[in-house]
Structure formats: structure tokens, C-alpha cells
Amino acid sequence: QSALTQPPSVSGSPGQSVTISCTGTSSDIGSYNRVSWYHQTPGTAPKLIIFDVSRRPSGVPDRFSGSKSGNTASLTISGLQAEDEGDYHCNSYRGSTTFVVFGGGTRLTVL
Amino acid sequence: QVHLVQSGAEVKESGASVKVSCKASGYTFTSYFIHWVRQAPGQGLEWMGVIFPSDSSTDYAEKFQGRVTMTRDTSTSTVYMEVSSLTSDDTAVYYCARAVGYSPDYWGQGTLVTVSS
């Protein structure tokens, strides 16, 4: 059982928007602006797409956006494309004992 | 460009140890943390710990304390992670990943460790 809670799956049609939630506690997401999101396709390593809640690394399209409210972080993907399919993982800093926690991952299907 | 190249797949018996390497290139090795994250088959990501190559300081997830050791060799820009007392629950792909803080940006290709009973 993962420390952060994500829905197992979401889906959307090309061009639509989807939002993936990541729920933690006041010890992690609620206390730190250190939430990241990763995209992973089968057989490959995760790729960083959002860090520090809402910042995008160079090269990541602005179709990807992140936000946070209370103990829940969200990743929104607008203008869905077939290449967006795969698993999305969130993580958060949790302080100097546990340090880093991950969610269980969400499988995105583009219909 | 940044590259993290990990050692090859391993098959170990239950109770044995495994040591995975991660060779970094394309950046200043001592300026970034190296995290280790594992992924069991069909499961999510699990953070194991982190090493700061500059001073070799480490932090481990509570679950792995006493069973995981991370070390580095600055002469070859390589980080090592050793896991002891392996069980079938340790069967997973193990990734190293670079980070400024706790959000890894570049990841290695992964190393599959299979533990047979």
C-alpha cells in the first residue's frame, strides 16, 4: 500500500483534458511544496514532468500542469494525445524521517 | 548530456546480497544527489534512499535501514547500492536517479533483480 493515494486508472479522448489526483497527509503534501509527477511507459524509466507542485522541466509541453490544495495535489493534462498514454506517478517530500513517498501510480488510457 | 548507466540484470538466491552500480556522466558528479527507487512487477515506485556523492552522506527509508548500503567512488563517478538478506519481495527493477533535492530528474535505465527461493 502506497503512502500517497492515486486513482488506479483514468481515461480520455484525444483533445480532451484529464486530471489525476494524488492525496497525502499534512505530513507530506500538506506541509511541503515538493510534489513531483512522473510519466512512465512500459519498459522505460520514469520521466519527470512536474516538480515543486507546478514547475515544468525544460522540454515538457505546457499541456501538463500541476497544482495543490491542502493535502491533495493534481496533475492536469490538456489536449490529450496518444503519446500521453502510460503510468503517472506522484511523489512528495515528507520531512527528515521518511524523506520521500510515492503514490501507487495511475494508468492513463487515451481512447 | 546527462547519462546514468546501471549494471546488468541479476539473479540471486534468497538470503544473498546484490550490489547494483550506477555510473554518471555529463554533469558534475559531486553536485547532485543520487536516489535509489525500486519498482516491483506491476507495482508503483518505492523510494529506498539517497546518497550525496560530495561527502558520501546517506539517508535511507526506514523500511530499508540496516539492509541497504549506498556508497560512491568519485574517481569513476559511480554510485553503488547493496541490498542484503534478499527475499522474493525484493524482486524488482531498481533505478538510480539524479536530483538537486528530492525530485529526481534524470534516471538510469533500471536493473532487474530477481530473487529465487
Q: Which two chains share the most extensive interface?
A: A-B, 24 and 23 residues
The helix content of chain A, as a percent range, equals under 10%
Q: What structural category characterises the helix and strand content of chain A? A: mainly beta
Strand content of chain A: 35-45%
Order of SSEs of chain A: EEEEEEEHEE
Q: Can you give me a brief rundown of this structure?
A:
By secondary structure, chain A is mainly beta.
Word description of this protein:
The complex is a heterodimer of chains A (about 110) and B (about 120). With about 110 residues, chain A is mainly beta. Helix content of chain A is about 5%, strand content about 45%. In chain A, strand 5 (about 65-70) and strand 6 form a beta hairpin. By secondary structure, chain B is mainly β. In chain B, the strands form 2 sheets. A 6-stranded mixed β-sheet of chain B has the order 2-10-9-4-5-6, with no helix packed on it. In chain B, strands 1-3-8-7 form a 4-stranded antiparallel β-sheet, with no helix packed on it. Chain B is globular, with a radius of gyration of 13 Å. At the A-B interface, strand 7, helix 1 and strand 8 of A face strand 5 of B.
Describe the secondary structure blueprint for this structure.
The complex is a heterodimer of chains A (111) and B (117).
Chain A: E1 9-12, E2 18-23, E3 35-40, E4 47-50, E5 64-69, E6 72-77, E7 86-93, H1 95-98, E8 100-102, E9 106-110
Parallel strand pairs in A: 1-9
Antiparallel strand pairs in A: 2-6, 3-4, 3-7, 5-6, 7-8, 7-9
Chain B: E1 3-6, E2 10-13, E3 18-25, E4 33-39, E5 45-52, E6 57-60, E7 68-73, E8 78-83, E9 92-99, E10 111-116
Parallel strand pairs in B: 2-10
Antiparallel strand pairs in B: 1-3, 3-8, 4-5, 4-9, 5-6, 7-8, 9-10
